[in-house]
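The instructor's notes for this session suggest beginning with a concrete chain rather than abstract definitions. Hand out the sequence below and ask the class to guess, before any prediction is shown, which regions might be ordered.
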Amino acid sequence: MDVVAGNIRKGLAQLRARGFEVLVIDPQYVTKMLWDDRAELSDKMVRLIRDAANEAEVNLFQRWALMRHWHVQNNVSFEQLLDTGDPDKLHQSDWSTQQISLALKSAMIKAVGLTA
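After discussion, reveal the predicted structure:
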């Protein structure tokens, strides 16, 4: 995990040094990342990405937290969040992808001070 963290930080620093505006999007909240011992590792990865984005002073879109909120607070089932045809339970559904896209669009519009 330390190697991954170092590589993320290095990549973000390189992009920022070249003057790029950067938006980091953390992982999707899906069952594959919650099975067995993956939940703890997934949480750690989400924190690692958040910390790297904060240190590099780049934008972070918290897809993990948003999807978790839908599931835990809004009772959106994993069947709705995930592509039901995906045996790995790793990929988002069309509905979930559309909702993430709309939330990201809204966040970007708000960040530049426009109205939708």
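Then share the key points. The chain has five helices and two strands. The mean pLDDT is 92.
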